[in-house]
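Try it yourself: sequence plus adenosine monophosphate, in.
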Amino acid sequence: MKCRRCRGAAIIDVRRHNAAFCKECFQHFCEEQVRRAIEHFSMLHQSDRVLVAVSGGKDSLAVWDIMRRVGYEADGLYLGLGIGDYSDESGRYAREFAEARSLKLIEISLPNDYGFDIPTGSQAARRAPCSACGLSKRHLFNQAALDHGYDVVVTGHNLDDEAAVLLGNVIRWEAGYLARQFPVLPATDGFVRKIKPLVRLSEREMAAYCVMNRIEYIVDECPMASGNRHIGYKEILNQLEEQSPGTKGSFVAGFFDKAHARFEQVAVDEREGLRPCTQCGAPTTNDVCAFCKLQIRASGVIT
Ligand code: AMP
Ligand code: FES
Ligand code: ZN
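Structure, out:
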């Protein structure tokens, strides 16, 4: 197996590109894919203050690393979700990455700062853990960016994540979710811009990137995620990809380039119904936003 770029000995193949790379050229490939995604979707301006949401997992640590290498200064944000040992360990990886590179890491703790954790909060609110967790992350990433003066929040969603979420959204024709599934969501009243620079790179490539760059990350999956529909979708998509390399890439890129615009109006209409949450001021369609409701239920005021 020869490296496509330098013809030296390759150590990793990327079948959907019909290519293989040596270590240096794989590094170049990953940076190039991030550069292309940023450019194609006009994700960033050089003057932006950038905040990377880092979970301690491979994708978010890799995206923080690559962003800096391709020339974007970025600080990190770690959110402690209170999921036992899993949260303790993931926080440790995020902290160690930041400390080793003298990077700024903002930390928010759901238990310490908001008085509840995901296991008890989701139970009190009778929500699936991943749903309580997802809404808390969306709310707190945005809030932290606003509080600390950042223009944009970066997440480590990769090609496999996007393909699995897209499949789920298409199976149920979730027009609102499809409208909001895009690698860049522009800033609107009360929301900072959100971007996903890893949309062109796979989970396997990000694991390889971390190993090659000696980035240590939490390997375990979240213990509350078992039974999550997206895990099954990823398996199905992996089978399709195995049979026909490039399937995930064309599914996702085709949606972004050819179909997403057809759903955009749904998001515009939804935004029109937004007003400030009476508790925290975040945009919501109700009096009290979903995060504040979760917090109130979790603290036992309403059950
Ligand atoms: P997930 O929702 O777990 O698939 O994670 C998607 C992305 O959200 C990750 O790539 C991170 O950028 C971000 N993220 C997830 N969990 C955390 C966390 N605890 N703190 C900060 N960012 C996170
Ligand atoms: Fe959110 Fe597991 S990381 S429920
Ligand atoms: Zn609120």
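One thing you can check immediately is this: The beta strands are 12-14, 19-21, 50-53, 75-80, 105-109, 152-154, 184-185, 193-195, 275-276, 283-284.
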